[in-house]
Each structure stands twice: as C-alpha cells, then as structure tokens.
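Project outcomes to date are best conveyed with an example. Our students and postdoctoral researchers have been running inverse folding experiments weekly, and each run begins with a structure described purely in tokens. The record below, which covers 219 residues, was selected by the lab manager from last quarter's runs and is presented without edits.
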C-alpha cells in the first residue's frame, strides 16, 4: 500500500520490542490510528524528537487492509511542546489532554473540530498568560465532552458542587474562542468546579479511570 502523509498529533507511545515504539496518533484526515515506529528508540532514527507527546508532525505511514497497526515511516516536526516542559503544571496538563484525547477519540473516524480544538488549546498554553494552563484544560474538557457527544446540561445539572457562576462561565466558553475568554474568571477553584462534573461524564464512556486528574487536583 502506498505511503500516506497526514498532519498528525502524537498522543502516546509505548515501548515495543528492543528498539520500536507503538504510537497512538491522531491525524487530521483519518482520525485516531495506532502504528509501529520501527527503530524509533535508536539514536539515529527517522523520527528524531517528532514522537514526543502532543507533537504536531507531518507523518508518513502506510497500513494494509485488515491490519490493526500501521507502519510508520518518518515524520517532519511542525510544532513541539518542549518549551512547556519546564513548567510542571503545564506538563501535567499535557498529560491530561493527551490521555483524554486517546480515550475519547474513536479509531478511524476523522474529527476536524477535535483537531482544531487541540491546536487552539496548545497555542493558548504557549502564550504563558496568567492562568493560561487552567483556562486551557477547562476549555478543553468542555469541548472534548461536547464533541464526543455527551455534554451534560450544565444549566440544570443536579450536581450541587457545580456553582451557578461556573454554569454561566461554561455557557460563555462554548460560544467564545479561547483567546477571548476573560482572564478574571479563571482560577483554580473555577477550573476544578467545572472539571469535577466533566471528568465523571467522560469516565462513564471509557473503560478505566483517567490517571492525570488527581495530579491536577493536587497542584
């Protein structure tokens, strides 16, 4: 089968054999796929640093019919999240975004809106504005839940932990691009208030609980 080149976000990698990696990746045109990056763990590979978590790359891969795993050939790095790794809060946020995306996205289903959501959230995190991390992950949680088809009715939700202010903020977020969100509304308590209900809604649709929300709660 001829190689395909797609704009791709790398979601997760897992060691495989001595020098290979299993890669979960989200392409703009084909949706979420998994593949084998052979010799990717060797110092001189065709992938370089392009398989780091949430890196945006042009990925070359091929996949035969009836094969679960694609063969990854090489990638060209378009955007790295390396400059965020010096901030522990941002690092945990990247783990959260990657984990939620990997669990919620169905395989082999293109989702242009989710792809643009990742781009908007990561670009906003790079701006390093005050409160940008909490704003980004709360915005991501809301839209990831909505785009996956099970956003609850926040205006009338029975969960008493979800305050009226948070419901109003949620409604505004769903109508506003992330760069236009009011900075004064963003703080840890606001973010936690919204995320508690959204995380529970997400976990009803995945096989296991998320790992990174407890780390975010502890920040």
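After processing, the design step wrote out the following sequence:
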């Amino acid at each position: 089968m001829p190689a395909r080149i797609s704009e791709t976000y790398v979601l997760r990698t897992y060691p495989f054999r001595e020098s290979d990696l299993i890669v979960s990746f989200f392409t703009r045109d084909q949706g979420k796929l998994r593949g084998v990056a052979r010799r990717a763990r060797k110092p001189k590979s065709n992938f370089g640093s392009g398989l780091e978590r949430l890196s945006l790359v042009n990925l070359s891969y091929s996949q035969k019919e009836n094969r679960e795993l694609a063969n990854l050939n090489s990638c060209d790095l378009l955007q790295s999240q390396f400059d965020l790794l010096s901030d522990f809060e941002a690092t945990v946020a990247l783990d959260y975004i990657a984990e939620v995306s990997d669990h919620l996205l169905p395989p082999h289903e293109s989702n242009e809106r989710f792809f643009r959501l990742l781009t908007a959230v990561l670009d906003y995190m790079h701006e390093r504005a005050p409160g940008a991390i909490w704003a980004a992950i709360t915005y991501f949680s809301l839209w990831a839940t909505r785009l996956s088809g099970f956003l609850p009715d926040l205006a009338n939700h029975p969960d008493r932990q979800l305050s009226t202010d948070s419901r109003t903020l949620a409604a505004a977020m769903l109508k506003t691009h992330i760069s236009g969100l009011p900075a004064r509304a963003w703080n840890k308590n606001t973010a936690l208030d919204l995320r508690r209900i959204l995380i529970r809604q997400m976990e009803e649709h995945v096989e296991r609980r998320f790992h990174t929300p407890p780390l975010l709660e502890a920040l």
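The mean pLDDT is 83. The chain has two domains: 4-79, 82-218. The training component of this project remains on track.
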